[in-house]
């Protein structure tokens, strides 16, 4: 008697080790950046098993480990789509000069991000020429679309059609924080305010006072044909400087850098890719 496709599938044994590896990948993706001990707690895997899985994922290019913090993050080149990586390469090339000038003008770390699915993709993580960058390495490479300044800025300046697609996808997110951030009224107010003042700020309400993610961030859009192509941000420590001072001293330089990048993109006839 011939078996149906469903019967054949149901009789196939699962690969437990693959399942454990995928579980670890999922937890790293949800956390953005996570330590070995945090993964032990979230996965309940034996110490030795988790160590082997992480070693395998690092060596095969799916994740990377920051030596300074011990945190694991998804590797950008493994997790991003080919279209997004083409977007990143173009943007990196066209933005290089403007970013160099920007970092000479402000002392705080800056970052440039593009959209990849329902999150933002950091080109290289917040960076600066000083040791301050070490304070932000826990962030990983995929800032939240609803909480990060990069994501909130992108949502505010992308097309209405693209925004609808992003928010519809986020409604099915496994992240409770993502689903909680989908309040239509709150989103509408955020988008209106961001467009009026020309920049977005980070929502840090989900972090504790001693969290490594307790920092300020402000982002401006890089526009192509009046739609978001990327976003440029600065991050700072609120204990050292407040937002009003950042707006006064850093915002003009961010906006100038964004305009310089836009001119380069327009000159080279780069168009939005609708990632």
State the distance separating the first and last CA atoms.
47 Å
User: What is the number of helical segments per DSSP (H or I, 4+ residues)?
Assistant: 12
Described by strand count, sense and barrel closure, the largest sheet is: 5 strands, antiparallel
In CATH, the homologous superfamily of the largest domain goes by the name: GAF domain
Indicate the CATH class of the largest domain. Answer: Alpha Beta
* Total number of distinct structural domains: 2
Q: Helical content, roughly?
A: 40-55%
**What is the overall silhouette?**
globular
What do we call the CATH topology of the largest domain? Beta-Lactamase
Order of helices and strands: HHHHEEHHEEHHHHEEEHH
Provide the residue-averaged pLDDT: 82
Which stretches are low in confidence, meaning pLDDT under 50 for 5 or more residues running? 126-131, 133-140
Rg for CA atoms:
20 Å
Q: Tally of extended strands? A: 7
CATH architectural arrangement of the largest domain: 2-Layer Sandwich
**Structural class category:** alpha+beta
Lateral arrangement of strands in the main beta sheet = 4-3-7-6-5
Notes on the structure:
- 49% of the residues lie in helices and 14% in strands.
- It has 275 residues and is of the alpha+beta class.
- The chain has 2 domains: 5-77, Orthogonal Bundle (Arc Repressor Mutant, subunit A), CATH 1.10.10; 80-267, GAF domain (Beta-Lactamase, 2-Layer Sandwich).
- The strands form 2 sheets. A 5-stranded antiparallel β-sheet has the order 4-3-7-6-5, with helices on both faces. It has a two-stranded antiparallel ribbon with strand order 1-2.
- A hairpin with a 2-residue loop joins strand 3 and strand 4.
- It is globular, with a radius of gyration of 20 Å.
- Residues 126-131 and 133-140 have low confidence and may be disordered.
């Amino acid at each position: 008697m011939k078996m149906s496709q469903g019967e054949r599938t149901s009789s196939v044994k699962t690969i437990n080790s693959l399942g454990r590896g995928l579980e670890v990948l999922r937890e790293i993706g949800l956390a953005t950046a996570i330590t070995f001990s945090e993964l032990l707690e979230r996965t309940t895997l034996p110490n030795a098993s988790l160590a082997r899985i992480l070693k395998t994922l690092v060596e095969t290019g799916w994740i990377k480990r920051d030596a300074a913090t011990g945190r694991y993050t998804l590797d950008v080149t493994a997790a991003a789509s080919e279209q997004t990586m083409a977007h990143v390469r173009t943007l990196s090339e066209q933005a290089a000069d403007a970013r160099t000038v920007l970092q000479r003008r402000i002392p705080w770390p800056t970052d440039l991000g593009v959209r990849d699915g329902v999150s933002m993709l950091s080109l290289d993580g917040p960076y600066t020429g000083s040791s301050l960058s070490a304070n932000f390495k826990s962030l990983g490479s995929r800032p939240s679309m609803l909480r990060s300044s990069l994501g909130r800025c992108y949502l505010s300046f992308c097309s209405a059609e693209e925004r609808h697609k992003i928010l519809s996808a986020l409604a099915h997110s496994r992240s409770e924080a993502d689903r909680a951030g989908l309040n239509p009224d709150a989103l509408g107010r955020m988008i209106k305010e961001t467009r009026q003042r020309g920049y977005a700020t980070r929502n840090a309400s989900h972090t504790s006072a001693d969290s490594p993610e307790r920092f300020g961030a402000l982002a401006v859009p890089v526009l192509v044909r009046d739609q978001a192509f990327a976003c440029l941000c600065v991050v700072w420590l609120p204990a050292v400087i407040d937002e009003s001072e950042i707006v006064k001293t850093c915002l003009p330089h961010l906006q100038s850098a964004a305009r310089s990048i836009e001119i380069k993109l327009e000159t080279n006839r780069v168009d939005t890719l609708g990632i």
